[in-house]
Amino acid sequence: MSSNIDLDALYRRVIMDHYKKPRNRGILEDGSHTINMNNPTCGDRIQLSFKVKDGIVEDCRFEGEGCSISMSSASMMTQAIKGKKVEDALKLSKIFSDMMQGKEVDEDLDLGDIEALHGVSKFPARIKCATLAWKAMEKGLNEGEQE
């Protein structure tokens, strides 16, 4: 029992670390795509910008306001997709979506800090907070593929 409590505490610390010291926060001046999305239910909003070249997400930044879940998720997501092929970033988004829906994900998959958001799936009202940045990323990358 205590190991589960320790894991929950660790996950909370990871989430708060990303919230207080967000990675990749800012505006990407030379981005190829900028997406604005919000969650009208709670007021979270995000502006996500990408630089995609030759099918690789070279850079990704975000600006926005919201709860610790939405902002830390954006920080984790930008870290996770930088340097990845567009198709791999979209696959990771699908895995994250499955995790948020409580579906089983491959335990051998190294999700890094993103794993800390797993517990959000137990709180349906917070799932939209966690997935906002990911949905913005999907929209941005999918629109980019059509150009």
Automatic annotation (TrEMBL):
Highest taxon of the lineage: Bacteria
SUPFAM superfamilies in UniProt: SufE/NifU
Pfam family, one: NifU_N
InterPro entries associated with the record: NIF_FeS_clus_asmbl_NifU_N
Single GO molecular function: iron ion binding
One of the GO BP terms on file: iron-sulfur cluster assembly
Domain called NIF system FeS cluster assembly NifU N-terminal: residue spans: 11-129
Stored CDD domains: IscU_like
Family statement: Belongs to the NifU family.
Protein name: SUF system NifU family Fe-S cluster assembly protein
UniProt source species: Neobacillus mesonae
Organism classification: Bacteria, Bacillati, Bacillota, Bacilli, Bacillales
